[in-house]
Amino acid sequence: MMKQEPTVLISGASGNMGQAMVVKFLAQGFRVTGIVPPNDKIKMDISDPAFTLSTVDLGNETDTAKPFRN
């Protein structure tokens, strides 16, 4: 059985604090899923294979399940 890295989910990942948190968790070996709102104008330049960016409308109950579908 393979060891799986712990995963964190960060809402507001494109903001200043959100991006800092993404970088910090990636550096510590976590898998990171970053959540950004639809039509977010901020482009994230993170090309780590342990990082997944997910566009989610947190006001839409169905949409909030998107990051958890695999």
What this model shows, in words?
- With 70 residues, the protein is an alpha/beta fold.
- The protein has one domain.
- 17% of the residues lie in helices and 23% in strands.
- It is built from 1 helix and 3 strands.
- It has one helix at 16-27, and strands at residues 7-11, 31-36, 51-55.
- It has a 3-stranded parallel β-sheet, with helices on one face.
- The chain is globular, with a radius of gyration of 12 Å.
- The model has no long low-confidence stretch (mean pLDDT 90).
Task: Record keyword descriptors for this entry.
three-stranded parallel sheet; 70 residues; alpha/beta
Query: How many distinct folded domains?
Result: 1
Number of strand elements = 3
Biggest β-sheet: strands ordered side by side in the sheet: 1-2-3
- Helix share of residues? 10-25%
Could you tell me how far the N terminus lies from the C terminus, measured between alpha carbons in angstroms? 19 Å
* Cα gyration radius (Å): 12 Å
Helix count?
1
Averaged pLDDT, please?
90
- The assigned structural class equals alpha/beta
Strand content: 15-25%
The biggest sheet amounts to: 3 strands, parallel
**Judging from the principal axes of the Cα atoms, what is the shape?**
globular
The SSE order reads EHEE
Unreliable sequence segments? none
